[in-house]
Amino acid sequence: MFWRVWGKGRNLVLLHGNLGSWKHWIRNIEFLAEGFRVIAGDIPGFGDSDLPPKPYSAESVARIVADGLIEMTGKTDPITFAGFSLGSGVAAETAKILGPRVDKVVLVSAGKSMAGVTRNDIAPFAKWRDLPTREARDAAHRRNIEVIMLADPANIDDLALRIQSEGAAQARLNINIINKSASHTHCTPGLQCGLAAIWGERDSTIGPYMHERPWWLHSHHPGARYTIIPRAGHWCAYEAPGEFNRALLDLLTPAAHAGVRRDAARQSST
């Protein structure tokens, strides 16, 4: 498993989404590394990491993540997680394994495996693997970013296209196998650490059902704080990095705000 590390301070572990790598956090790392030891991993089967051994499961993948973190941080240093989409489930599974040394898990754009919440229907993905030219493949990747990742097509720049195309080409693990066992329904409610969440207001995977996510969060962790970033899509950490960075820092700061909902629309830029 490949890890990349920046900065000093509290251990903040970033886990990416499907068809991605550490690069899903490319607009956040520099900011976060000013106050944390940022540890970004390529989940087994994605990015530069090898496939995990069979049989695949959420727990077997999480155990690899947990072993890597123990090797890098020791057996006692506190760990905080921020997991994006697929990475939110892996973060929760890993937190379950690591137990009391995990102080908080921030779920970013989570919701697919939460029982009782509705997943929005999205358009089919464009197929790209067998297309004959790079231009045609790039057009397909651009379409897929538009379908699921970013709310505003105008925000699809060359960097987003490169991250999407490279991540898709490197992805070798079928997340449907993982999703069968990686469920916030089964894992997250039992976590003893702090829990928080960030969603983009225009996340295409959620659509008109955003109100169900905070309800689910509070039904299992009363008082858990969350942020909804205005106008941002599923990949809100990339599409609205300033708002996302401030929101994540706010949620990670032990403060007198516990139990108080704070939307990014109400947050100052300081």
Widest sheet: strand ordering: 1-3-2-4-5-6-7
Q: Strand content of the residues, in percent?
A: 15-25%
Global morphology: globular
Task: Provide the CATH architecture.
Answer: 3-Layer(aba) Sandwich
Q: Look at the structure and give the CATH class.
A: Alpha Beta
CA radius of gyration: 17 Å
Report on this model:
- By secondary structure, this protein is α/β, with parallel strands linked by helices.
- The chain has one domain (3-121, 175-266): Alpha/Beta hydrolase fold, catalytic domain (Rossmann fold).
- It contains 9 helices and 7 strands, in the order E-E-H-E-H-E-H-E-H-H-H-E-H-E-H-H.
- Helix 2 (58-73) crosses helix 3 and helix 4 (134-149) packs across helix 5.
- The termini are far apart.
Brief synopsis:
The chain is of the alpha/beta class and 270 residues long. It has a single domain (3-121, 175-266), classed as Alpha/Beta hydrolase fold, catalytic domain (Rossmann fold, 3-Layer(aba) Sandwich), CATH 3.40.50.1820.
